[in-house]
Amino acid sequence: MKVSVITAVYNVADYIDRLLTSLESQTYKNWEFIAVDGQSNDGTYEKLLGFRDKYPSKVEVIRSPNRKAGVSFDRNLGLEASSGRFLAFIDGDDWWSSMFLEDTMARIKHHDGVFTASYDVLDDGNTQTLVKVPYRKFGEVSWREIVRGDVRFGIGNTLLRRNIIERIGLRFPEGRNFSEDTYFMMMYASQVRRVYGVSSRDFFHLIRSNSSVRSNPDVSVSMKKIDSLIANHKSLCEGVYMYNKISPDEFCRLFMEVLHPVSLMIYVTSISDSFGRKVGRALFKRYSSEIFNFRPTLSHSSLLMVVWIIDLFVPGFRKALRVVSEVLDG
Length: 330
Prior knowledge:
By secondary structure, this protein is of the alpha/beta class. It folds into two domains: 3-208, Spore Coat Polysaccharide Biosynthesis Protein SpsA, Chain A; 219-329, no CATH class. It is 47% helix and 19% strand. The protein has 14 helices and ten strands. The chain has helices at residues 16-24, 44-54, 71-81, 100-108, 143-147, 162-167, 180-189, 219-243, 248-257, 259-275, 277-286, 288-291, 300-313, 317-329; strands spanning 3-9, 31-37, 59-63, 86-89, 95-96, 113-123, 128-132, 139-141, 158-161, 195-208. Strands 1, 2, 3, 4, 5, 6, 7, 8, 9 and 10 form a ten-stranded mixed β-sheet that branches. Helix 8 (219-243) packs antiparallel against helix 9 (248-257), helix 8 packs antiparallel against helix 10 (259-275) and helix 10 (259-275) packs parallel to helix 13 (300-313). The protein starts with a strand and ends with a helix.
């Protein structure tokens, strides 16, 4: 059974080789790779063409017709061009262990999706630090545990069924390229019965200090992206009410109480780190009506939420907590 691996890229020449090498090393060999390049100008496109020439029967490289179309448009292009019964999306600067496809394919037969454990790789421009993402819920998982943030079910660490995606015509939301992955994955989660979590850490997620939020010199641009996030999440609930016939009220309530405020705080925290705590606290106040819907759970994301809020008003809290953690681990 074939897996379609879909990647939308733009100017990731410094990182793409690692992903391509991880594809080559997969122990499960029945895959195709669909790469959509958003008109890169740093050599990314040329590297992808070289990979296609190496595996002409397995690799397709598409040049996006519009550089400003965005990641949602490009992922949708890749989805339309793919032919596999199963789908895996991954970003161009992330990568897999050699067992990712084998570990997920081994469990997909009796489940609506499979995810693996993962590492976050923190890149400050000089060094990369490997961090184990401490989700402990594996085996069979319900949609409630996904929406509560008990597990990471997202782009990069999941294997999905095409028939579920096509049944509701699911696509990434074009024109609102912020939190588009959350929209797509949570719409998918609203359709599942049984999902399986593999405890093997097969996914490596790169977190760069020069992210789109942190590196943008204009805070108003970042605020527009937060507004786009909110619009995507509201659109998500509209879709859930349209396609989820079992429990749309509970799904949307849990999402708006947990993952929605957590997503907001991720960006408030990033902007705060870039522009200072005064700006961060002003944003916190601006979006407080959304953030205060938060209902803590026993999940990793809920713990981070609490840490981010404390650190916003007690600068240095995260750093102190990290030092304590390193001392205890050492």
